[in-house]
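Researcher: Let's do a round of design. I'm pasting the structure tokens now; please hold your answer until I've finished.
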């Protein structure tokens, strides 16, 4: 668990985050590593060194949270988070966004081409990892559509494309599935 130790040190050195947030995030990272031990977390470790968390108003963010991968800022809409959402699920959802992000891309979403599919897959992963105890599903429509696509091309292909930012793999797999029909 060298990467967990490295991430713990990185989080400890980040003065932008509260101790409570660091502890919660590290617990979710450990859970993630247990389920997905082969995902490279080097990028996550790098991003955690400068990650900031800021509040955002309900008029600027309709969801409970939003991760800006270009600025490496996690925005939290406290109005939504306090009243409607499962905080553990939200934090895992955004952790997955951080894990799968580069400065220009989240998961397999390249220039907004696969944004809904990416949101849906992130939602599926978060549900698989921590569930969702909220009465209000967050990205239910996107998750249902993504579930359909993953049943056609395979969850393993989706995971590989998501965690390696390989949009071309996703496209080729979808095209290949169309040809086989």
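Researcher: That's everything. Go ahead.
Model: Designed sequence:
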């Amino acid at each position: 668990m060298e990467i967990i130790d490295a991430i713990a040190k990185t989080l400890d050195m980040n003065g932008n985050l509260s101790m409570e947030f660091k502890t919660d995030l590290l617990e979710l990272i450990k859970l993630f590593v247990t389920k997905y031990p082969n995902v490279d977390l080097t990028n996550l470790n790098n991003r955690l060194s400068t990650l900031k968390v800021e509040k955002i108003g309900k008029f600027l963010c309709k969801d409970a949270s939003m991760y800006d991968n270009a600025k490496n800022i996690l925005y939290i809409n406290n109005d939504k988070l306090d009243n409607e959402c499962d905080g553990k699920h939200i934090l895992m959802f955004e952790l997955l966004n951080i894990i799968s992000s580069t400065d220009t891309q989240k998961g397999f979403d390249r220039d907004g081409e696969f944004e809904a599919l990416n949101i849906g897959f992130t939602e599926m992963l978060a549900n698989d990892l921590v569930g969702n105890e909220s009465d209000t599903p967050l990205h239910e429509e996107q998750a249902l559509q993504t579930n359909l696509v993953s049943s056609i091309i395979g969850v393993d292909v989706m995971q590989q494309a998501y965690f390696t930012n390989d949009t071309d793999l996703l496209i080729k797999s979808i095209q290949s599935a169309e040809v086989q029909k």
